Amino acid sequence: MLKIKSALISVFDKNGIDTIAKKLDSLGVKIFSTGGTESFLKKNGIPVSRIEDVTDYPSILGGRVKTLHPKVFGGILNRRNDKNDLQEVENYNIPNIDLVIVDLYPFEKTVQSGESETNIIEKIDIGGISLIRAAAKNFKDVLCISSKEDYVEFIDLLEHNSGKFEISTRKKFAAKAFNISSHYDTTIFNYFNLDSKVYKSSFKKGRTLRYGENPHQKGFYYGDFDALFEQLNGKELSYNNFLDIDSAVNLISEFNDDSPTFAILKHNNACGLSTRSSVLAAYKDALAGDPISAFGGVLITNSLIDYESANEINKLFCEVVIAPNFNKDALNLLKSKKNRIILQLNKSNLSNTITRTCLNGVLVQDKDYKTDSLNDFSIVTKKHPSDIECEDLIFASKICKHTKSNTIVLAKNKQLISSGTGQTSRVDALKQAIEKSNNFNFSLKNSVMASDAFFPFPDCVEIAHKQGIASVIQPGGSIKDNLSIDFCNKNNISMVMTGTRHFKH
After folding, report:
1. Is residue 42 annotated as a catalytic residue, yes or no?
2. What's the pTM?
3. Could you read off the pLDDT of 28-49 as tens digits, one per residue?
4. Do domains 2-192 and 374-497 have the same CATH topology?
């Protein structure tokens, strides 16, 4: 076991480091430190030696160079069982450093905060990252604590083992250290990277899931789930839960600034969605869209869930309920189903890119952040859509954008009536949507139709006309657009083209 006799502490975030230093001091550990950390420890009455007294060299270049010195790295990297190393340490008066504690400059947070490039560059840690790599490399003789997230575990081990650490423990912390350093370097690279031919990604946190998409598959999630949600109830999330929640959050983001909106999703697609004056009304009309598919679904809203809404929701078996907030009584009622996953959605940015494996690599693309609006409308028919129809066209387009292609979405009065999803033919998608609307006794008269891509032939608008659909939104761009336009003109249907395709494969 390694008995810690000396430690180098150099941290950006000073929280909790005084507790550690006091414990080390009580165990007779000699502490070396730098700059602000040294001042902080001294203010807290902890004996500490300046690293400058070891190196006989001052901190220079505004603190850019403090620990980058052979005596510091010699103290960390020397092999305690190597005769040549021991001789050199003695010759050059290099003190052994058995423990390195570093908390890096917050480069990632500084980038996210939108600070100037000058401030961002100064948050690239040089000395700290070098200390981490050196200590982790020499884990056989040195213990490395590379993040304040490890303080609790470290203190517990320190107290139980009186400053002694097994090699297996040191190797474990070395792995953590290289996780920190590789993530840090990846983040810096991505800040500088302008070459789309190079792709790097890193997540410091992850969790093992019960299984993957199916029980015979392993499943893992890598990301900071807790930054997006507070889980208030329910069982551990499954792989499929994650996929459904991702779809739900991206869909509801289209309605963040709208009146109370409620969506019900099944297998990543909306089976019900409605915008109303209250959450209760929005939920009821969303459920009415497809009460069969809603069974076991994921529910999400852009508004607080009150008791009345919770009382209705509680009648439905559902896997997940997501909202930005919950009334206390509503939350208690929803919690009555112990396995029901309840998530409070925090305000946080989602990834700007979509990544998926492909062959022996990955495909990466920008997220589809384009939301169709009135400004995008090109009215291509003699008949113009009414104001109400325009609202419904935008409503339907938002849903269509988040539905598996090929897709057709039918809507009326800001309610999803039905959709045809994931079909190989756009005609089949429309027929599927019509059949669903009939099954739940919806009239399609004066409804609107949204398509994620253009109509290569007029067959879809012909079918739509027979059902009483009054207005159509589509991107356009077919060489035969005129055939669909001509049919609409002859049959008093309005059509708008947006110029934006919304494939979702």
Report:
1. no
2. 0.85
3. 999 999 888 888 988 988 899 8
4. no
